[in-house]
Amino acid sequence: MRIILATCRSKPALTSSDALLAAELERTATVVAAPWDTITPAAEYPTTVCLRSTWDYHRRWTEFRAWVAGFTDRNGGLWDPAETVLWNADKLYLRDLGVAGIALPRTRWFEPGERPDVEAILRDWKLPRAVLKPRISATAFGTYLLSAGRALSDDEWKPLEASGGLMQAFVPEIELQGEISLVYVDGGFSHAVRKRPVGGDFRVQGDFGGTVERVAPSRSVLGFGDAVLAAVSRPWLYARVDLVEAERGPVLMELELIEPDLFLTPAAAARLAAALLARAGRAAA
Question: What backbone torsions phi and psi does residue 182 show, to the nearest 5 degrees?
Answer without folding.
Answer: -100, 120
